[in-house]
Structure formats: structure tokens, C-alpha cells
Specification:
The protein has 552 residues and is an alpha+beta fold. 23% of the residues lie in helices and 20% in strands. The chain is built from 13 helices and 20 strands. The strands form four sheets. It has a nine-stranded mixed β-sheet, with helices on both faces. Strands 10-11-12-13 form a four-stranded antiparallel β-sheet, covered by helices on one side. A hairpin with an 8-residue loop joins strand 16 and strand 17. The longest helix is centred in the middle third of the chain and has 30 residues. 45% of the residues are buried.
């Protein structure tokens, strides 16, 4: 459902569709993604009166704010693997944190389809897709025209070429909340004194101990969100300066929920509920709000839909804008698997009211040790307060923890969890054993089990078996070298480049010293003398050796 802030108006799907002619550059909009890290919908435009986000609030008033957008995973690399492929990480084997998966051969980064359709695609600069090949920490050259700190739409050779540009803002990352005073001051240097958040006014969730340390982390997090808001405005200003704002669709989203304890790494809404705002001049009525369920898995297919590029049938994400828009989702799904050095397995399904969680290792506690997570002051404070509660040995101990604060430290997890989000947004009161909710429990359980079967949930395999299936013997497969064939006719040569490796993509250059790798999406027509350099790539594989041919 789509409504305007100023009046309750339901918009038909056709209003938001795109009518355009394939190949007509004037009808193909530019697309800009501003992605941020570790942030929940803690923005003024989402009704948070503690937040100070004037630029994003103004931006939301110019487009549509999605109230029910969710990540498929509550941690960066698995989440981003789903975003770049449009596939559930549990289906392509990228659900474990830092797993270096090998997706099936038909799975590609969705930007390859954009590049083949003529878009200039850039990424500045984070990838972290969970399937990079060593020793490089970037995707193959077929994914982006430029994936570097200098990547920008302003660098495209032809200023008439439509672009898809990604900028990832890291200032809200978990590590910045607990950064040194010097680094934190640097990150928030753009803030005025009145932009700073008073820890005493923080609205601390009930599952945290209400202490000065926790409040300080909470205020720091909000300060960083405000700093991000300032950075965000800079990109909109650049669009205006370039005269591109009217023909550019701008997406703003976070990769998962806030980078604090019991949020990031957890399938509660604090870990997977994210902000998502889209501005599309002339297509989306300003000030719109959508309560449709949206998965971040849907971002790639939606970009293809807006660009007029057919969405591959294997993609599990679905478009929520453009002429390939699908009916709204009934459910969204999320997963938690190995987090760094710690094993766990949780699956979640959510509709607009209820959240169902299945714990596949109920004998393990919530509060398992994860080294990186333990560095957060809030996490240290939670453990300190729990120890005092448990031992009652500290001379400063003055009150017991509340039941909500004790939940995270239960020695075992329940096998099933069910929450009514409308009355319990912090997911504290587990209704799985409630007689009044058994029909809902069964419906949600059935939906989850059906999803696991239909999407082939690889989390049910031990990780060692999954690794062996993807990479036998632990040996990295190398993509076969490309094969270049040609037909010469007078001063011209027609070149075709193929590769024997299933699922391989081919990058090529036509200058001996290199003019930037391009995606080979068809036959090349070159005027002699000419040089063709080519290599083949596949996600999760090593790149092939480079092949060079000269045509004199």
C-alpha cells in the first residue's frame, strides 16, 4: 500500500510503473545508491524524535519512505552477498560470515546485466560480498566499470551514458561507536553543538541495563547517524550541480540494523529492520509512505526493472518499482549462521505483525562469545551487570536486572520464538507457548519450513561439508582462459570471446596498455590494427590467465 503523508491516498501499481523504450538513453534514468552501515530506522522521518537527520527527513519528503524494509542477514558480508546477486545467502552458500563462498554458475552480480545494457557502473568502494577470490579483495572486473576510492559517475567517458553509482558511507559502522575520542571527534567534526545527542535523553531499549556507559554508546551512535546525514546531503548537492537530479533515481538504505549488542548479528528487528527511502522525480509522489514488506534482496531486481533490463528468472529478489514490479510480499525471511568464530543457526520469518524465529541450536546461549562484538562498551557493560546480578558480590550492586535484560543471558534458547511486533516492538514477550497464538505459530512455522525447502537452505549442511561441496579439497578453482575467435573482412575484424568454465564472465580491453576492463556482452567489431586482451572471471573462482591477440 502506498499513501501520502498529507492525505490517505492509495496509488495504483501502474502509477509507479516505468514506460520506456529499450535502448533509448533519454528514457533510461540514472540510478544512485547511498548505502550506509549498521543503522536501524533511527531517523527523524521514521518518527524518532531523538534523531537529528534534517537532510534525510527532507529527502523522504521528496520520495517514498518504506516502513517495512528488512535485511536478509543481520551482518554485513552475508547481507551484501544477497544484495549484489538478488539471491538468498542460504541458497548460494554465503550465509556464514567470512565464508568465501562459491555461488552456483548461473549466479552473477546484477550489475553485469546493467553493464551489458549500456550502464556505466561504479562502486565507491566497499564490496565485502563473501565470495572474493584471493589474493584480491574485490569482485572480478566484469562487475564494475570502476570499484575504487575514485569511482564516481563524473568519471564516465561519455556524459550521455546512463550510470548506476554506489557510494557506501562507513561512519555509522559498529567500530566507529567505540572508536577513540580522537577518531570519534574526526568522524563528527561537521556536527554543531546543538546536533549532539544528550546521553541523559537517550531512549534505551528495555533489554539493555540503563547505565551511563550504555547511554553513552547510544548517544554516540546517534551522533554518527547525524554525521552520516551531513555526508548524504553532499551527494544530492553533486547531483544538483551536475544537472542530474531530475533524471536520477536515488536509493538510500542500510545493510542491516544498528551496530550494538542484540541488534547487529541478531534476527530481531533491531538487527534486520532498516531504513529504505527512494526518490524518483516524476514517478513517485513526494511524501509517500509504503507499508509493503521489502527485502534488501529486492534492491538489485528493482534497479534492473527501473533500467528496463529483464530480471533473470533465477533471482529470488523481486522488483518493488518499475515496469517489472511484483505484488507485495506476504513474508520476509532472515537468517543467522556462523558469526566470525561462533556457530549458531537461526531462521526468521516476518509478516507485518508477527515474527517467528526457529533456533536450530537451542542448547546454546544467546550470549555466546564473539571477539569483535565483545569490544563494544555496551557488551562489556551487559556482562558486568549480569555478573553482579548473578554473584551479587559487588559493593556497588544495588538492584537486580529486569526480566527483559536477563533474556540475553539465558543458558539456553527456546526452540521457537513468536512476537507480536505491533505491541512488543523490542521482541521481549515470547508467545510461542501462548494458547491464544497457536494458529499464528503454526502458520508462521509452515511459512518458514516451506521457504527453507523451496530455496534449498544450505545452512542445514555442516559448514565443512558445504565447503567441500563448493571447493573440493580446499583448492581454489581457476577460470579457464578465454578463447578468442575472429573473422577478418578487409580493414575490419569481428571478434568473439568465449570461455569453457560454466558461469564465467569475460572482461576485455582493446588497447595494449589498457583502457579499463569492459564486460564482453557480444561480438566486437574492431578496425585494424587492433589489440584484444581478455580474461575470464567467475564468482568464487580465481581469474583466468590473460589472453592477448593482435590484428595487424
Amino acid at each position: 500500500m502506498w499513501i501520502l503523508n498529507t492525505s490517505i491516498v492509495i496509488l495504483s501499481m501502474t502509477v509507479l510503473g516505468v514506460t520506456q523504450e529499450r535502448g533509448a538513453s533519454a528514457a533510461r534514468p540514472n540510478i544512485l545508491w547511498i548505502s550506509i552501515e549498521d543503522t536501524s530506522p533511527d531517523l527523524g522521518c521514521y518518527g524518532d524524535d531523538y534523531a537529528r537527520t534534517p537532510n534525510l527527513d527532507r529527502f523522504a519528503a521528496e520520495g517514498v519512505r518504506f516502513a517495512n524494509a528488512f535485511s536478509v542477514a543481520p551482518v554485513c558480508a552475508p547481507s551484501r552477498s544477497g544484495i549484489i546477486t538478488g539471491m538468498y545467502p542460504t541458497s548460494i552458500g554465503s550465509m556464514h560470515m567470512r565464508s568465501k563462498a562459491v555461488p552456483p554458475p548461473y549466479v552473477k552480480a546484477f550489475t553485469e546485466y546493467l553493464r551489458a545494457a549500456g550502464y556505466y557502473c561504479t562502486n565507491n568502494v566497499k564490496t565485502d560480498y563473501n565470495f572474493e577470490a584471493p589474493p584480491s579483495n574485490r569482485p572480478p572486473d566484469t562487475v564494475w566499470d570502476d570499484s575504487s576510492a575514485r569511482a564516481h559517475w563524473r568519471n564516465r567517458p561519455d556524459r550521455q551514458q546512463p550510470f548506476f553509482a554506489v557510494f557506501n558511507l562507513t561512519v555509522t559502522h559498529e567500530g566507529q561507536i567505540r572508536s577513540s575520542p580522537e577518531q570519534f571527534a574526526k568522524n563528527t567534526a561537521a556536527l554543531r553543538p546543538e546536533d549532539r545527542h544528550d546521553p541523559a535523553k537517550a531512549k534505551v531499549p528495555p533489554y539493555y541495563p540503563d547505565t551511563p556507559i550504555v547511554r553513552n554508546d547510544w548517544a554516540r551512535y546517534y551522533d554518527l547517524v547525524t554525521a552520516m546525514d551531513v555526508q548524504f546531503a553532499g551527494f544530492l548537492k553533486q547531483l544538483e550541480e551536475d544537472g542530474l537530479a531530475g533524471n536520477t533515481v536515488v536509493f538510500f538504505w542500510a545493510d542491516h540494523g544498528r551496530g550494538l549488542s542484540r541488534a547487529k548479528r541478531w534476527v530481531y528487528d533491531s538487527g534486520i529492520h532498516v531504513p529504505l527511502i527512494v526518490r524518483w522525480p516524476g514517478k513517485i509522489p513526494p511524501g509517500s509512505v509504503s507499508d509493503d514488506l521489502v527485502s534488501l534482496l529486492d534492491l538489485g531486481p528493482t534497479v534492473l526493472s527501473i533500467a528496463g533490463v529483464p530480471i533473470p528468472s533465477h533471482m529470488q529478489g523481486q522488483a518493488f518499482l518499475g515496469d517489472q514490479r511484483k505484488a507485495p510480499r506476504e513474508y520476509i525471511f532472515a537468517h543467522r549462521d556462523r558469526m566470525d568464530e561462533t556457530y549458531d543457526m537461526m531462521r526468521a520469518v516476518r509478516d507485518k505483525r508477527f515474527k517467528y524465529i526457529r533456533n536450530f541450536f537451542p542448547g546454546r546461549p544467546y550470549a555466546q562469545y564473539i571477539a569483535y562484538m565483545e569490544e563494544m562498551p555496551t557488551m562489556k557493560e551487559m556482562r558486568r551487570v549480569y555478573k553482579e546480578h548473578r554473584d551479587a558480590l559487588s559493593p556497588n550492586y544495588d538492584k537486580a536486572m529486569t526480566p527483559a535484560q536477563l533474556l540475553f543471558f539465558r543458558p539456553e534458547k527456546p526452540q521457537e520464538e513468536l512476537y507480536d511486533i505491533t505491541i512488543d516492538p523490542h521482541e521481549i514477550n515470547n508467545l510461542a507457548d501462548s494458547p491464544a497464538h497457536q494458529i499464528v505459530l503454526k502458520r508462521m512455522r509452515t511459512a518458514l519450513e516451506r521457504w527453507q525447502k523451496e530455496t534449498v537452505d544450505l545452512g542445514l549442511l555442516p559448514e565443512d561439508q558445504l565447503k567441500e561441496r563448493m571447493r573440493p579439497g580446499g583448492v581454489w578453482a581457476r577460470t579457464a582462459p578465454p578463447v578468442i575467435t575472429e573473422t577478418v573482412a578487409g580493414e575490419f575484424v569481428r571478434v568473439k570471446i568465449t570461455c569453457a568454465t560454466a558461469g564465467a564472465s569475460i572482461a576485455y580491453m582493446t588497447e595494449e596498455k589498457g583502457d579499463g576492463w569492459k564486460l564482453a556482452a557480444g561480438e566486437l567489431a574492431l578496425k585494424r590494427p587492433a589489440v584484444v586482451r581478455a580474461k575470464a572471471c567467475r564468482l568464487g573462482f580465481l581469474d583466468s590467465e590473460e589472453i592477448l591477440k593482435r590484428y595487424d
